[in-house]
Amino acid sequence: MATQKLLLLPGDGIGVEVMAEVRRLIAFLNKSGLASFETEEDLVGGSAYDAHGKAISEDAMKRAQEADAVMFGAVGGPKWADVPYEARPEAGLLRLRKDLGLFANLRPAVCYPALADASSLKRELVEGLDIMIVRELTGGVYFGEPKEIVTLENGQKRAVDTQVYTTHEIERIARVAFDLAKVRKGLLHSSEKHNVMKSGVLWKQVVTSVHKAEYPELKLEHILADNCGMQLVRTPKQFDVIVCDNLFGDMLSDVAAMLTGSLGMLPSASLGAADARTGKRKAMYEPVHGSAPDIAGKGLANPIATLASFGMALRYSFGLSEAADRLDAAIADVLGEGLRTKDIAAPGQNAVSTSDMGGAVIKAM
Amino acid sequence: MATQKLLLLPGDGIGVEVMAEVRRLIAFLNKSGLASFETEEDLVGGSAYDAHGKAISEDAMKRAQEADAVMFGAVGGPKWADVPYEARPEAGLLRLRKDLGLFANLRPAVCYPALADASSLKRELVEGLDIMIVRELTGGVYFGEPKEIVTLENGQKRAVDTQVYTTHEIERIARVAFDLAKVRKGLLHSSEKHNVMKSGVLWKQVVTSVHKAEYPELKLEHILADNCGMQLVRTPKQFDVIVCDNLFGDMLSDVAAMLTGSLGMLPSASLGAADARTGKRKAMYEPVHGSAPDIAGKGLANPIATLASFGMALRYSFGLSEAADRLDAAIADVLGEGLRTKDIAAPGQNAVSTSDMGGAVIKAM
Ligand SMILES: CC(C)[C@H](C(=O)O)[C@@H](O)C(=O)O
Ligand SMILES: CC(C)[C@H](C(=O)O)[C@@H](O)C(=O)O
């Protein structure tokens, strides 16, 4: 079995605690011969700033470029509220996304049957929910220039951000979304604001062309982003795959995640283009939740989102779909047995610690 | 009683039907001596395009400028899917907002007790919900330049939208929001993405300064827009007033509206700055819902959102708070009696028509 190189970037807050469980899982997989991972580890976010004065070092970036995949924890916290904008913890994450070319962010919002009651929504609306949000991740208002604050003659300030999309950027993310819809229920919703934004006009045009030319057998629906947010709350099960730009994806995936009632459960994958020669894609995997400074260091965090993100790595980066299936089944088993971390425990129910949950999942494999 | 000038712009689809009920209500108020309105009427949106080739005529704009307030219905529909971008139905709405200087959009999300079960959310999460979203309405990515699609040398297209905010624009919307928080629960959430957008950085700074200098007695919380969307679904009652930019306001107010389970119930007010000499503000009132082409012309639309918007006009533009209170009470009474249009009827319950509902509200006054 060829050795695979994995870079672990735990980051800040609970990122450190949940990544510890991934490390244990890797040790288990290596030991049992199911995989052969070689791991490196580095700093990102606030902890990188404390060490190097920037949110990710050049050395860590180089390691990320060379790894077969990156596991990312979470970054940020009140401790770094006043660091310069360019060095804020999130800058490390944004640089990784951009420099590795990870344009396709896959965010499943799945409601685990055992947790349907944890949702704010009525059970019948979320039971069996299985949505995939495909978010463009290296363009749009996150990276467009100019992006600046200037002081005007009258002393006032003027802030500018620029939303930019090209045909090519929209085409490639549309293809990722259609490819996923193809192996799922065959339905893609494309979400933008073409009634207000020129980028929305181009988005709609390009997605429509890709549909006609390459995926005519699938069903494509266009939905305005505000209406999409609304419909996600009203009748979420009408959706299969949703594709949208970076900023709408940020908003819509958080709303979708919350529907499942278990933010601590949701993984994500960020993928680059396939290399023309080797066919390999750069990739980074991270939980949808953040660094949760309020509960950091207390062993309260739910490691499942990060373990499930690692499961996506097994599947998308390493072709180890058997191990990925076993991991997913182990997570379902452990939940089925009633094990709960605090975030998903019913009121009054006893909650287990981060490492108890991680240990139980590994044991169930 | 001085005569007040009101311009009615029913627009397209169900806009026409719900505005008919406002006309009846005005006739009732005039007849009973509770008010003295003089109304004019004009086209906007697709119907204006059909008549004049643009989404609002210069003549209608002039009438809007001269009126004491504008009542707006809704615009758009599949019929106008292919009109040029500059003439699309929404352009009429955007021009009204911009040219009248209506920078403050107030969108209450209130859960009527009689309708708490219509929400997708569990009853206990929305019962008693009363949020006010204050959305900046004349700036941001809606109006910033450049806003264009250009064809590049390689034949690809490139679309650009520009998000711009100045200190002044943020200060004035922050004051509107703090003033509202002051007469409500004293809590303001300011929502942006300062971790990604420079306009978010400036937004946070300016709102913080206005808070310190002018409203130190109120509580201010900053919340990232994605997290705000999530928290609205998780525990909506944590919010009192939320202030945000044009695009986040568009998304967040739709999510908030849906929590109440009764989109057909929600009004909005769009206000300009007070005139330095007369103290008067330009203002436009409209339901949060759209033109709903699928049910247009069938008498199925719920007129309450538009009637309640007219109630906001009575309060904010005409100082007729007594009549506004009577209208609000009449709406609550009619709902309490169990009257329901289709959108808010329980499964299997008989629904009444648009004009039956409008008539019942007027009768209850
Ligand atoms: C941390 C932040 C920069 C990031 C984003 O806005 O993309 C986060 O909200 C996410 O969704 O991954
Ligand atoms: C119709 C459309 C232009 C408008 C907007 O995006 O502002 C609508 O969604 C709204 O929220 O009033």
Automatic annotation (TrEMBL), chains A, B:
Cofactor(s) the protein requires to work: Mn(2+); Mg(2+)
Positions of Mg(2+) binding: D226, D250, D254
Subcellular locations according to the entry: Cytoplasm
Isopropylmalate dehydrogenase-like domain mapped to chain residues: 5-361
Binding residues for substrate: R97, R107, R135, D226
Purpose: Catalyzes the oxidation of 3-carboxy-2-hydroxy-4-methylpentanoate (3-isopropylmalate) to 3-carboxy-4-methyl-2-oxopentanoate. The product decarboxylates to 4-methyl-2 oxopentanoate.
HAMAP family to which the protein is assigned, alphabetical: LeuB_type1 (MF_01033)
Protein name: 3-isopropylmalate dehydrogenase
Species assigned in the record: Labrys miyagiensis
